[in-house]
Specification:
The protein is mainly α. It is built from 13 helices and no strands. 76% of the residues lie in helices and 0% in strands.
Length: 290
C-alpha cells in the first residue's frame, strides 16, 4: 500500500475512535439523565441537605462545597503553577538540574491522586494544622492540578514564534519585559487549555478528599466569604463526588436515582467550568492573534 492509502486508513481509524468515545460519553450521560430524571427537575433537590430519607435528600451542601473547593484549587494551582512554568522556561538555568526538575514535574502528572491525599494529610492537616477544611481541600486539589498547569505554561511559551522574541530584543526590551509584555499575553490561550484539563481531572476526585477527612454527610453551609472569609476557609466540607459515592453505597434504589441525578449535575457543572475557560481562551486568542 502506498502513502495515501495508509493516510486514508489512519484518518478512518481516527474518526471511528472519536465517534466511539463520543457515543460512550453520550450513553453514560443519557443513562444518568434517565435514571435521575425526576430528581434533576426537582428544585428541592438543589436546596435540601442530605437526609436518611431518599425523597427528601438533596445536594445543597455538596454543590456549594464543590464550588468553594474548586475555586480554591483553581486559585492555588494558577498562583503557583504559572509563575513556576514561566521561571523554568524563561529564567531558570538549562543544565542537568533543570532537566531533572522537568522530568519530575512531568511524572507528577501521572501520580495517583491518593498520593496527593496522603501528602496533604501529613502536611496541611497535621503539620500546618489546617484541619479537615475547605482550605486543605483547595490546596490538595491545587497540588493535583499543579503539574498539568506547569507543563502547559512551558509548552505555551515554547510555541511563541522566535521572531517575536528577536523583535522585542531588537527594540531594547529586557527579558522581564519580553516575558510579561509579549510572551505571556500570547500564551494565555495555551495556559487556559492546561487549566481546562486540570479542572476536568480534579472536579471528580474523591480519594484525596476522603483521605484528608471530607464528610459524607453534612447538613450546614460554610459562611459566605464576604461575611467571614477565614471562617469559610476553616469550615468542614463535602463535594458532589463524595455525596454520590455515599448514595451509591446504600442499598435503596431511590438513593441510586439520587446518585444518578448527582452524577448528571456533576457533568453539567464540569461542562460549565470548561465552557467558561474555553470562552476566556477564545477571547484572549482573538485579542492576541499571531
Amino acid at each position: 500500500m502506498n502513502y495515501k492509502t495508509w493516510e486514508r486508513l489512519f484518518n478512518c481509524l481516527g474518526i471511528f475512535l472519536v465517534v466511539f468515545v463520543l457515543i460512550f460519553l453520550f450513553s453514560i450521560t443519557l443513562k444518568l439523565f434517565i435514571d435521575g430524571f425526576h430528581r434533576i427537575f426537582d428544585f428541592k433537590f438543589y436546596t435540601s441537605y442530605p437526609s436518611r430519607f431518599p425523597n427528601e435528600a438533596g445536594i445543597l451542601s455538596s454543590w456549594v462545597g464543590t464550588l468553594y473547593v474548586m475555586a480554591g484549587a483553581i486559585f492555588w494551582s494558577i498562583f503557583l503553577g504559572v509563575p513556576a512554568g514561566i521561571y523554568l522556561e524563561e529564567f531558570g538555568a538549562k543544565g542537568k538540574i533543570a532537566k531533572i526538575i522537568e522530568a519530575n514535574i512531568t511524572n507528577l502528572s501521572a501520580v495517583p491522586s491518593i498520593v496527593y491525599g496522603l501528602l496533604a494529610l501529613g502536611i496541611f492537616v497535621y503539620r500546618f494544622n489546617f484541619g479537615e477544611s475547605i482550605l486543605t481541600a483547595g490546596l490538595t486539589l491545587g497540588l493535583l492540578m499543579l503539574p498539568v498547569i506547569v507543563v502547559a505554561t512551558r509548552e505555551s511559551l515554547r510555541r511563541i514564534p522566535r521572531a517575536i522574541r528577536e523583535g522585542a530584543y531588537a527594540l531594547g526590551a529586557t527579558n522581564y519585559e519580553l516575558v510579561f509584555h509579549h510572551l505571556l499575553p500570547y500564551s494565555v490561550g495555551g495556559i487556559l487549555t492546561g487549566v481546562i484539563i486540570a479542572i476536568s481531572r480534579a472536579i471528580g476526585e474523591t480519594a484525596p478528599l476522603l483521605t484528608i477527612g471530607a464528610l459524607t454527610f453534612i447538613a450546614f453551609l460554610p459562611p459566605p466569604p464576604w461575611e467571614d472569609f477565614i471562617g469559610m476557609l476553616k469550615s468542614p466540607f463535602t463535594v458532589l463526588p463524595i455525596q454520590i459515592f455515599n448514595w451509591v453505597s446504600r442499598p435503596q434504589e431511590a438513593f441510586h436515582k439520587n446518585a444518578a441525578a448527582g452524577g448528571f449535575i456533576l457533568l453539567v457543572l464540569c461542562l460549565l467550568l470548561n465552557s467558561a475557560s474555553y470562552y476566556l481562551r477564545y477571547k484572549v486568542r482573538t485579542k492576541y492573534h499571531w
